[in-house]
User: Fold this.
Amino acid sequence: MRDVVEIGLGKTAQRGYHLDDIAIVPSRRTRDVDDVSTSWQLDAYQFQIPCVAHPSDATMSPATAVTLGQLGGLGVLNVEGLWTRYEDPVKVLDELASLDDDAPTTRRLQEVYAEPIRPELIAERVRHMREGGITVAVRVSPQHTLALAPVILDAGVDILVIQGTLVSAEHVSTNDEPLNLKEFIADLDLPVIAGGCTDYKTALHLMRTGAAGVIVGIGGDEWSTTDTVLGIRVPMATAIADAAAARRDYLDETGGRYVHLIADGDISTSGDIAKALGCGADAVMLGEPLSLAAEAPAQGAWWHSAASHPKLPRGGFGTAGDDPLGSMERVLYGPADEPHGQLNLFGGLKRAMAKCGYRDLKEFQRVGLVLDR
Assistant:
């Protein structure tokens, strides 16, 4: 039974838990780490590691999406980002990377993202990713999906990510024609990942639209200001477990249709990845951890997609430090020369699975958890 707390005489609240509140409990057996698989499959597309890139221009360019894809993850390019607004955004990214703590970073982000999106650049960026021989995925916001979808689909992507801070299956508007996700997805011949969501009901409704994957969470991290701006904070351990319950019920409802859960928020170390998957996620969406890689376009600077919103920005502007921790391959696979879990992210996951005796990610979702804070 869900723990419910009385806030006052007229209001109760359900208790939720963050990933920091839980720990993994090893089982009665261990396993050789070389016998553990971290492979993951979405629709017809196979990946070596359960890693989906957060579509921030700070970490994802066409080139870094190719690099991540060649290393076994899924790079996602933001088609509303700098790479589709500027012929050559490198100068803009260099300028943003050089901003110091005293600079008006949010105002500058708003200015550079005010440049209009150029449809011809969408096709060019997708072609670049396609030539890299990877699974091509792009992100579009729900507000611009109908307008940009023809260009995106003509460019020939493999996976479409419809992502906002919060995405629901039913958006009500008296001013604009809202996006009907169910009708939109039904007309497509490619898998769609949609989100974020934060609770059981929304996750279940998104699954019923026909989405192949659902993003759980709002990308919250130390730089996120969604809590202070909107009052919304997501306890990720609870959100993932609730979405996993929705997936189980949807599996029964449809007679076997499995929807993948991608955790997005409060994930910065290999231990966080292991706990998110242990709560029921199939993959994780990484943003700031990839800014530590030498290939990151913004050279260690980091910002969320929502940080440049023209009217209500949400998300700060941070830097990973003067020097990268290593190449993207080293961030993902090691070797590590620091003990904090920021390098060899998926080697750490693999070892956690081995310590608990599980062979693959589906088995690892059954791992025991304990509350210790």
